[in-house]
Amino acid sequence: MVDTNSAFMGQELAKIGLRVRQISSVSDRADEIVAALNQARQRAQVVLITGGLGPTKDDLTKHVLARYFGTEPGDARAHAAPRGGNFQALPAAHA
């Protein structure tokens, strides 16, 4: 399996002068998603999350993220900068 999302994001971030320091892949388990978010908050100034937000009915990621940030599942832009949280939204590179 080839992780094309990470390769693309790394190339695009390099174009604007950002260096990728770590890439993590997490299974579709709530405890592992929360642990990865907690670790990311401790080590990074910018955290980008992709994948897991697909249309499948059994996907946990969007529900775990909404619960983690104290919101409801919905438009991802609404969850990008939660109340006083450490996570910030960057403008989308591609519309």
From TrEMBL:
InterPro entries, per the entry: CinA, MoaB/Mog-like_dom_sf, MoaB/Mog_dom
Region (Disordered): 74-95
Ranges where the MoaB/Mog domain occurs: 1-95
Name of the protein this chain belongs to: Molybdopterin-binding protein
Taxonomic classification: Bacteria, Pseudomonadati, Bacteroidota, Cytophagia, Cytophagales
